[in-house]
Amino acid sequence: MMPLSETGALDPRGVLLTAPLIGFGFGWFLERGGLGDARKLTGQFYLNDLTVFKVLFSALVTAMLGAFWLDRIGLLDLDLVYLPETWVLPQAIGGALFGVGFVIGGLCPGTSCVAAAAGRLDGLGVIGGMLLGVASFDAVREWIRPFYESTSLGAVTFSDLAGISRGAGVAIVTGIALAGFAIASRIERSRS
Amino acid sequence: MKRYSDPYLAGVGIGLVLLTAYALAGRGLGASGAFSSVLAGTFDDWVVLELAGVAAGGLVSARLSGRLRRAIERGPQLTASGRMFAAIGGGAVMGFGAKLARGCTSGQALTGGALLAAGSWIFIATCFAAGYAAAPVVRRLWR
Fold first, then answer.
1. Among A124, A129, B1, B63, whose CB has the most other CB atoms within 10 angstroms?
2. Which residues of chain B are under the pLDDT cut of 50?
């Protein structure tokens, strides 16, 4: 039964040891897919390179279907996997700021590390900027706390909120991804 | 220099890594959290070690495929120093946004998205919408 961290099969030190290995795999595939290249990433927003959408959604759907079915057959207890909490307005505004910063900086936090590791100085620039942004947030945290801690819904899935089963939620996301892949290939055909 | 692999293959690879993280560690991938930890002087928590692994994985993959080289990726109309300013400025806006949203493309979009977390899907929606809204304004940076 998994997660091994929660069933005691892996002690806290063992769990910590998985971190660099899992990170290595993540960084490896990000680099393979070309996600250390800011021009490739920003191509998503000018519709001439849809790699970001393809990688993000194929990764998301793979993990989602794997987790869902492992839970179904009793190998993984999804209730024991940490579910990020929902804070409606901070995440809506934070997401929008993130999107704007992403188009300007050209790399996201994880891919900036891949870019820097592959020798790209702009990756280092984004890392420096991230540190600045995080530090400025910490500096004004008390001031924006009422907003930061507003509209909390706790650890909740959209399928819970909609009153549908997890399976139906999984089907909806799979449908969105497949439709997106079809649209992406149409856009690419019309551009070539 | 070898070509990049198929994006769908890379995506499935990342998905399997994420699934492994759920199964072994009971949590998903992350990146922005590591920046907070490092600023707080913590270097031995899970996400910092994971992000160090990300850099190592990126380095080894780039080295093995002949893509390891000093470069500044930028649009054809932008100077190298202009690109560095944009990288730092964009990174700062992104860092602030990631703190507000309690996660980034790794911790929210990917990890939470695959678990159907409501807030992660709010993040995905506003992030893409704002990216597309801002793209024409900063077109000179990239096109």
1. A129
2. none
Q: How far is A185 from chain B (nearest CA, A)?
A: 12
> Alpha-carbon distance A91 to A172, whole Å?
21
In terms of residue numbers, what domain contains B50?
Answer: 1-70
Do residues B52 and B16 both lie within one domain? yes
Are residues B83 and B52 part of one domain?
Answer: no
Give B-chain residues touching A80 at CB under 8 angstroms: 26
Whether B120 and A84 lie within 8 Å, measured CB to CB: yes
Measured between beta carbons, which residues in chain B are less than 8 angstroms from residue A91? 100-102, 108, 119-120, 122-123, 126
Shortest distance, CA B3 to any CA of chain A (angstroms): 9
Strand partners, B47: none
Buried b (16+ CB within 10 A) or exposed e, B74-106: bbeebeeeebbebbbbbbbbbbbbbbbbbbbbb
**What is the value of pTM for the model shown?**
0.97
**What's residue B103's pLDDT?**
97
B49 and B98 belong to one structural domain? no
Domain finish residue from B24, B44, B70: B70
Give the structural domain span for A70.
9-191
The answer to the question of residue A4 being in a domain is no
Total Cβ atoms within 10 A of residue A13: 7
Are residues A22 and B29, on separate chains, in Cβ contact within 8 Å? yes
Query: Which pLDDT value is given to residue B2?
Result: 80
ipTM of the complex: 0.97
pLDDT value at position A1?
A: 86
